[in-house]
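Collaboration report, partner site 2.

Our partner group contributed sequences for two proteins of shared interest, and the home lab folded both. The records are reproduced in the order in which they were received, starting with the first partner submission.
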Amino acid sequence: MKFAFILYKYFPFGGLQRDFIRIAKTCREMGHDIVVYTLSWEGDIPEDFDVHTHKPLAITAPARNRRFQRWVQQQLQASPVDIVIGFNKMPGLNIYYAADTCFEHKARHLRKSWYKYTPRYRHFSTDEEAVFGRQSQTISLLISANEKTLFQKYYQTPKQRLHLLPPGISRDRRRPDNADEIRRAFREEFQLQDDEQLVLMVGSGFKTKGVDRALLALKGLPSGLRDKTRLFIVGQDDPRAFRTQAKTLGISDQVTFFQGRDDIPRFLIGADLLVHPAYNENTGTVLLEALVAGLPVLCTDVCGYAHYVTDANAGDVVPSPFQQKDINCRLKSMLISDQKTKWQKNALAFANSADIYSMPERAAAIIEETARRHAKQHTPSQQTDEAGGSR
């Protein structure tokens, strides 16, 4: 069969984009043809993927998205497919992969009251309604139980249209046998001394991920501990505002920013702690990537995957409502704790036993089954009379 995948933007380092590429590749391995429609594509194109890009001229994101959506519908009419899978909310999808959080919930609780009267709100609210509304037929693949509850709360989406998937951590994130050697080489490369501790942040979208909170937490450490702590921040975003914040706080020498990279496993092995103080996070895949690499985690409880940190007993979770003094204390406590070896052992034991790797296969199976069911529903009856009418 022929599957169409739609997403606004592809680049190699986004969580949504990484999930898309793994699911699409799994579908390709099952023998299906893959066509992709996107505004832009950065990086290599997988073999046998038919990628089409179109970025309309528009002043605002809603206007651009609407024009792109119309273009996609024109392409699908000219070249039909068996099923349409979207990784951003929009009309006309057979299946939606819910990498994003519930927009309506954010609009009501994280925005000013006047936001609901803006064109931007109307655009994204309409697109979310098109996916989750009771009149829609779109099936959604969810990766967060919390978000499933929110979508049902705001849209009363029938439960048969909502499929909760397990996490899909890539097995290459698991701690390798030569991890000690990798760690030594990594720390030599970045001139990390034996008595220095490395705190790591990974994620595109520095504001949402809470980089400002991490910088304040580093500043909040006692001076002797702070001087022996480094913070590496890796992600596809503009770091200028946060570099300014670090300079204002007087911690620039302790902080290093990196653009998105494809060698994150080295960073996870070379670090001593992952910090992820997100304001809003559907899942937080990097939390699980850290655990399977044996790296303890400090995160906020708004992350959909935060409960895995607690389940594994491999770190700490900052409860809501968030307080900066709270995370400052928890960061200090973890850095001076004698539990680091225990946390690492617990994390690696969790990696060996938990079902946290099968998302791409489960998603592809649902896509294939939905496509077959869709094809049967749209196949004309073979039982026709001589005049061409149905019996």
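Second partner submission, folded after the first:
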Amino acid sequence: MRNNLPVVRQARSAAMLLALLFAAIMPYQTHAWGFQGHTYIGDLAWQYLSPEARAWVTDKLQRVDEPSLGTMTTWADRIRSTPEGRAMGPLHFANVPPTETSFNMERDCPNHRCVVGAAIDAAAIMFSKSSSKQEQAEALRVFTHWITDLHQPLHLGFYEDRGGNSIRVTYKDHSTNLHALWDTVMLREGMLLEPVQLAANNPLPAAPANLNAALLEWATDANHLAREYAYKGIEHQGEVSQAYVQHATPIVQQQLLLSAQRLAYFIEAAARQ
């Protein structure tokens, strides 16, 4: 078994993440997976990395003062209230029209101002031999967030309801919205295995030959999941049934796993440059 990333300031980081998690469950947040989900994906991705890739990541973490890959994935949400964070607001999501069946860069991501375009741009910096190590570190910091956002189905939802943020629902007598239900509420249902165990149970498949093309396919997949699972059977001001959550839970688990594995693909590719 590979050693885990050195957990410098572990206690402090745990306390910080707990505080951030409480902030992430407020009703109209648009943070995909919440802080808990993002951190989980980063910690899971770490389990898939080769020693060389871990060394590459460790160097980048030190350059941007992040204690772990899991914590790094939350940076773009941690700065949401700053001018830089507000400028990046459109990069957290993409919308596919209800009348269309697949994500299209020209139509759905003009000037790369969406989560897919942002991921492609950050990956290009990570992969470029002309990028400095500091530039690569800053690109990795945002890329970890964009690829995890991309796998939350409602971040590829519909413009009209703001990816489910405008759809009010009640679950277990708790008033929330559909987006927050998928971001955070269902993650508190005890569905998460320890990253070490989950990675051991699910070996890393071979990476796609063209990672950028794969990002477009994954965006389409996420939109299909939003249509087929997230929106299905939901009404504004309605109550979420336990049957709905039972159907949604495997999808959430699948997307968390795929997000971590696909983050690992990109890191491995960047580390080999």
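Feedback sent to the partner group on the second submission included the following. Residues 1-31 have pLDDT under 50 and may be disordered. Strands lie at 168-171, 174-177, 238-239.
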